[in-house]
Amino acid sequence: xxxxxxxxxxxxxxxxxxTGVITGNGTLISLSWIMWVLGILLILGNWxxxxxxxxxLAVAAAAGDARAVRGLRTLALTARAExxxxxxxxxxxxxxKAGDVESMWELGRLVEQREGxxxxxxxxxxxxxxxxxxxxxxxxxxxxxxxxxxxxAP
Length: 154
Known about the structure:
The protein has helices spanning 3-23, 26-48, 54-62, 66-81, 85-97, 101-115, 117-129, 133-139. With 154 residues, it is mostly helical.
């Protein structure tokens, strides 16, 4: 549940309360109080939520915290979507350092977009060697990184 729901619950609770007062229905009034309290808690909870610190995530990821690694990858993908590829690359490299296979793949995709398939090959190979299914497909006979069908010798 996000703050958007909180902004919905407040006026909906008001309407429910008004309806309860007009009709004399105590149940509606009670429900409106619940909606108001939940709405206020959701809004306040969002105000006090601190943004994620990438440095703290990087430290936790280096210590082996899998949740922090996923957090780094999520921040990186958000940065890429927002048009900040340098930030995305820095965050993905930190997640790769922690051993995240999905980040290896995503870093390969980012490098491929910027510099082409040849430059991205080491990242795709790293992901494939660690079991990433889609990356493995690039190296099979006829794949993008194995077009001649010869043994790619990973």
